[in-house]
Design goal:
The protein is mostly helical.
Length: 179
Amino acid sequence: MPRPSPIDDLLPEQRKAFEQELIRRNFKNYDGLVDWLKNNGMELSRSSVYRHASKIQRRLQCVKDSTEAARLIAEAAPDDADMRSAAVISLVQSELFEVMVTLQDLDESKPEERVMLLKEAAKSVLDMTKASVLQKQWAEKVNAKLQTAAEKVAETAKKNGLSADVVAAIRSEILGVAG
């Protein structure tokens, strides 16, 4: 098993300062960052800094990618039946699956740490599954209300002398929102 990272030995406030400086430098100039760390009482090698920076950068990129995907979904998907929520839930479920697969491949962590990480990922999957079920139930209720509204509109239209074609067109227009 690999030895623990020297980053783990930093005090929480040191680690926070290090990560803020890393982001401020836009993940560049690791030699300058090592000097900055030394001037601030933290002795870390360039390779340790680079390994930690790579992990942080991957995490930030995942957050940026997920945020961008959610934004695109919000712009492109109609929300009449809460399709955006369904799409976001699906996206999160996919990401969680990838995380769980990655966790299985981790050689660096202790078995009990992996178990805890997998446990947390499994809880997240459960939460996403519950959210998915609730979203589908909500969409079914909305569709049922639309069906009822379409039927009432069709009845009223027929009573007021509109042709069957016009009634069908109105009904189709109402239900087209849900479809």
